[in-house]
Amino acid sequence: MHATVTDHRSDVAVLHLRGELDADTAGQLSAALAGLLERPVPRIVVDLTGLKFCDSVGAERVHHE
């Protein structure tokens, strides 16, 4: 999985996910979200359109983070 962040205005950060989100890559998602949560951005959008695959572990991580 590859994650990039795009800032839109001063109040929105979009986390773009590409590739496969599964048990092996869920930690990368957690790390990316943790970094965003440390920033003073009130709204975080997770863009899943670039994912080719997401298993139940990945879906759980998106839901609970």
Automatic annotation (TrEMBL):
Name residues in a coiled coil: none
Cite the CDD domains for this sequence: STAS_anti-anti-sigma_factors
A Pfam entry, by short name: STAS_2
Instruction: Give the classification, highest ranks.
Output: Bacteria, Bacillati, Actinomycetota, Actinomycetes, Micromonosporales
InterPro entries assigned: MlaB-like_STAS, STAS_dom, STAS_dom_sf
**Gene3D superfamilies assigned to the protein according to its UniProt record, in alphabetical order:** STAS domain
- Origin organism is Actinoplanes campanulatus
Give start and end of each STAS domain: 2-65
What this protein is called in its record is STAS domain-containing protein
